[in-house]
Specification:
Blueprint: H1 10-21, H2 26-33, H3 37-46, E1 49-54, E2 60-63, H4 66-81, H5 83-86, H6 88-99, H7 104-114, H8 123-130, H9 133-137, E3 185-192, E4 201-207, E5 213-218, H10 223-234, E6 244-247, E7 262-265, H11 275-287, H12 299-310, H13 322-336
Parallel strand pairs: 3-6, 6-7
Antiparallel strand pairs: 1-2, 3-4, 4-5
Length: 357
């Protein structure tokens, strides 16, 4: 028998009905379905249909029927999803915290931590409420960090094939890069905007050790122009400051061979493997939400935003700024190669490369 519990499916309920009609013992039914016999007993007991009404031939409808059992189970799950609907105080608390920018996990965890009289609720119930009829009417999805109108499937898609050779997979990236102890390793992602603003997007680059950030505007997601702008932005830095770069498997990065640095790609559907730039994108989204107009995505605006991010102290850097750490690394590289270049002591490509919008 399986070690993981799963809900009984409609096909299994149909088989239970057939075997019961054949007067097969419950133990034999459980063995055939690969279930514990107590599971089958509970299924029959909870979903047993009994209508005291008799038809005109005097027949009483009583027994286990797969269709009614499926309906009973579905209705029970629906009632559980109504927890926030049935508890107005808890619902209002959840809505208020969503409005303050809390995630469903944070709301559910804090309720358990504080043990408030409001009660507790799981983050999955909150998500179902957000994407249910009541939540859609209030547009609660807009409060989520990733404001999708429709919830993604929880199990994801099958990975699609792409022209990335195995030696470029993140599993083959040097292990020292993951420790953030060495300088010159970058992560890259695209920041996308609402569909009504066209195909324009922003390339988000972050150096792993210093958290130094570069923002570049793009007119579309074609790979050659996107990679070309990345190469142009990183070219002024010495080679030790641009050793590797890590992408996800988006087609916009398939022209990676044009870069004069080693490129690596995350596993399919694993953006957390480049968590630094993903976290940075969350900071960027505070200033560039999905509905950001073109005027807020000009080269000048991106320059100002990048400087603001790079001049903000970070706890992970012992409250130094990314700009300070990045400049110190460049200075150390210059000293080690005995190259005195005051112009290079501070990063030149703070401004996105390209024509002014």
């Amino acid at each position: 028998m399986g070690q993981r519990y799963s809900q009984i499916s409609f096909a299994e309920r149909r088989r239970i009905q057939d075997l019961r009609d054949a007067e097969v013992p419950v133990a034999a039914i459980a063995e055939e379905l690969g279930r514990h016999r107590s599971t089958i007993h509970r299924e029959i007991r909870r979903n047993f249909y009994h209508d005291p009404f008799r038809d005109r031939w005097g027949k009483e409808y009583k027994g286990y029927y797969c269709t009614s059992a499926q309906k009973y189970a579905r209705d029970r799950r629906a009632r559980r999803r109504l927890k926030l609907t049935l508890n107005p105080l808890l619902r209002n608390h959840v809505i208020a915290k969503l409005g303050e920018g809390w995630s469903p996990q944070q709301i559910a965890g804090r309720l358990k931590h504080d043990a408030l009289p409001l009660g507790t609720v799981s983050h999955e119930t909150i998500y179902r409420f957000i994407y249910g009829p009541d939540g859609r009417e209030l547009n609660l999805y807009a409060f989520l960090a990733v404001a999708r109108r429709r919830r993604r499937q929880r199990l994801g898609r099958k990975p699609r094939s792409n022209p990335i050779p195995p030696e470029r997979w993140i599993a083959n990236r040097p292990a020292e890069i993951a420790t953030r102890q060495s300088f010159g390793h970058w992560e890259c992602d695209l920041v996308i905007f609402a569909r009504q603003f066209g195909k324009a997007n922003v390339t988000s680059l972050q150096e792993r050790q210093s958290r130094f950030h570069i923002l570049l505007s793009n007119e579309d997601r074609r790979s050659v122009p996107v990679i070309g702008r990345i190469a142009q932005a990183l070219a002024p830095f010495p080679c030790p400051a641009r050793q590797t770069i890590t992408f996800d498997r988006g087609t916009e990065f398939f022209a990676y061979k044009a870069l004069a640095m080693d490129s690596y790609f995350c596993d399919p559907h694993s953006p957390w493997q480049k968590g630094g730039v993903e976290n940075a994108n969350g900071r960027v989204r505070r200033h560039l939400p999905l509905a950001s107009p073109e005027t807020e995505r000009t080269s000048a605006a991106l320059t100002t935003l990048a400087r603001r991010l790079n001049d903000t102290p970070r706890r992970c850097l012992d409250y130094r700024t990314p700009a300070e750490v990045f400049a110190a690394n460049l200075t150390a590289l210059a000293a080690s190669t005995q190259v005195k270049s005051p112009e290079r002591s501070l990063p030149r490509p703070l401004a996105p490369v390209g024509p002014q919008a």
